Amino acid sequence: MQPSYDGLINLAKGYPFPEAIPSDALTQAMKRLSEVEGDVAFQYDGSPATEYLKDWLKAEMMRRNSWRTGDDILLTSGALQGLDLLCRIFLDERSAVLIQAPTYMEAIEVCRNYTDHIVTFDTVAEDANAVERELRLTEANGHPVRLIYVGTSFQNPTGYVMSPEFRRDLVALAEKYDAFIAEDGAYDQLWFEEPPPLLKSFDSLGRTMYLGTFSKTLAPGLRVGWACGSSVLTDLMGRFKKDLGNPLVTGMVSYVIQFHNYDAHLQQLRAAYRRRAALMEFALVEWMPPECQWLPSQGGYYHWLSYPAVVDGERLRARSYDQGVNFLPGRHFYPHAPRDVSALRVSFSYESERNLVEGVKRLGNVIREMLAGS
Amino acid sequence: MQPSYDGLINLAKGYPFPEAIPSDALTQAMKRLSEVEGDVAFQYDGSPATEYLKDWLKAEMMRRNSWRTGDDILLTSGALQGLDLLCRIFLDERSAVLIQAPTYMEAIEVCRNYTDHIVTFDTVAEDANAVERELRLTEANGHPVRLIYVGTSFQNPTGYVMSPEFRRDLVALAEKYDAFIAEDGAYDQLWFEEPPPLLKSFDSLGRTMYLGTFSKTLAPGLRVGWACGSSVLTDLMGRFKKDLGNPLVTGMVSYVIQFHNYDAHLQQLRAAYRRRAALMEFALVEWMPPECQWLPSQGGYYHWLSYPAVVDGERLRARSYDQGVNFLPGRHFYPHAPRDVSALRVSFSYESERNLVEGVKRLGNVIREMLAGS
Which of A43, A105, A349, B75 has a 20 to 30 A CA-CA distance from B60? Predict the structure, then answer.
């Protein structure tokens, strides 16, 4: 939890809002699991419901045109464990990983545990030539890129949705340079207008592992996610995954999906986040100075706000905090950040609707003051 | 779950018996957690109850004389994840790990993920000279032992309790040869007469990480364990532990400990397992031929049964299965097993008391027949 005081509006938090978490359904699921299956759900192997969940995920991946013959599902502790296991398989000290900039900060930390060679491409530019230059250069330097990590839809932190064309480009480049793709789909169920296709659905070559999670659609604290891709790889990942899974919580998630109308829950979530995104956008238009820029949100949790370079990021954060609003500075989302990237992430997922508007107002006022004073 | 048919008595399973799992208390804990803390328990950081659990574990380690200034607690996914993280820190392809033979089979798998150099010492011989010879020889071969993994009390699979003297010897040898000790205490709360001291309590040098778990005392499927040792190491382990913990289940365990009289639960468990161990010993005395040997049980889950070398292990297993009883062959517990180690593990933890006796009877009859026929 971020430090918090009375009146602080925390736009830094990438958490679901409290009512988004179906805690009653989860509690009922555990009660039912315990009644129906007795001790079985509490033992090492967990409940037979785990099989149901894996079958359901397989059907889901099929529905999204992202299941190839020979694929399998591996349950993981959130999407991040999937990335960790792929790093363990594909990276060594010599090889490199290619990631977006900006990207999910925890993913950067995971990659750093495996290699010093982290190279990047611009998240929103969609410049396949630039990506290829990076792949070629890194290989020429003796550090071939073996893994490409991308957030494809409503990416953290930008909210960006990668075009189908660029997804195809990445698959082709992975094939050409013998790299493997880790597709992080953490937010992709939270679309506002229409579901984006998965990058994996464009991959006929089996070079993509899709990493999914229930963190944004049920609750982060469950730590239930999955990896979907070639069974050769999921088997290997499973061998390294020595935490023995999470049988009880997996059973709970399976019961919620079977007995608590998960589809209706997702529809409610989409409507709620769409409304929150719209409110935040309304506030951005209303309160930000014209020098600031952001993308309209199509889903997920975040707005990525660019501000003029004359505004010092450290001072912006400190002054905002004094005014009772917090955000995540842009430099957190870069592996090799300059001191100030003149951008920040605000989340519309957690604070109350009223606070979202008030928080943006406070932040806008601070930026205006700093522009006027600088 | 093992394959099972009507009438198969499964003495292979290292599971708690169904009534040993306080599933009502766990369900109530989740309900209460959800009512008291709302969404907080379901978010990434989990409930404040996690802090309570860590403080409680610290107090517990102090009570067992195993807390040094500068120690810390890291919550893990069972004891096994603790070992995995220590392997990741201490082992590379060149260095070696020293383990008991026989030892916990999953631990062997974890070590194999990190090194080919797995050396052993006899679990029950308590021969410090032999251990030192192994340490010296391995170092001379260019593969210094950096990690020593031991089950110290009611060890899996032997049930053996290491003497205080040998615990001291191991600490001294670790210091002399610059190795680190991973002490697996998975079963040490399940003592029948008196609690054995921890190896860590003899370590004034900070060379031991204690690995604990609630798998045997609450439920395996929770996947809640902890590592206790130097904070320098727990910090590093935490950096590699990229599954972000298991906030919801951690909160449940914390509530069970706070509100459901965990001490009384432990006392009931000890009485139940003591009774089960005694029943199995009674049956061993009654039904095993005089050529078979086993140690009297002082705690934990297992008896380790040695039988004459003329009995073929594969045939013993097949015939026993035909007679409706299953066990774990001894060779599973060795990293470099000969074809047959003339020993097997039977568990008194899972089957009904009636089945424990009947299972041993069936197994004894098969061994007697094979001895008579061979």
Answer: A43
| pLDDT tens-digit readout, B156-197 | 999 999 999 999 999 999 999 999 999 999 999 999 999 999
- Has residue B363 got a pLDDT over 60? yes
Q: How close, in Å, is residue B227 to chain A by CA atoms? A: 14
Domain spans of chain B? 9-20+264-373, 23-259
Q: Give bridge partners of residue B98 from the DSSP assignment.
A: B119, B148
CA-based nearest residue in chain A for residue B251 = A221
Q: Which fold has domain B23-259?
A: Aspartate Aminotransferase; domain 2 (3.40.640)
| DSSP, residue by residue, A202-237 | G-SSS-EEEEEESTTTT-GGG--EEEEEEHHHHHHH
A9-21+264-373 and A23-259 share one CATH topology? no
Helices (H) then strands (E): counts for chain A: 11, 12
Give the chain B residue whose CA is nearest to the CA of A48.
B1
Strand partners, B96: B145
Pairing of strands A145-151, A118-122: unpaired
- Angle value at C-alpha A239, between A238 and A241, nearest 5 degrees: 60
Identify whether A296 is preceded by a cis peptide bond (ω within 30 of 0). no
**How far off is chain B from A192, nearest CA to CA, in Å?**
23
Chain A residues close to B45, C-beta within 8 Å: 1
State the fold for domain A9-21+264-373: Aspartate Aminotransferase, domain 1 (3.90.1150)
The dotted CATH code for B9-20+264-373 is: 3.90.1150.10
d(CA A197, CA A227): 17
Q: Which two tokens stand for residue B282?
A: 């009674």
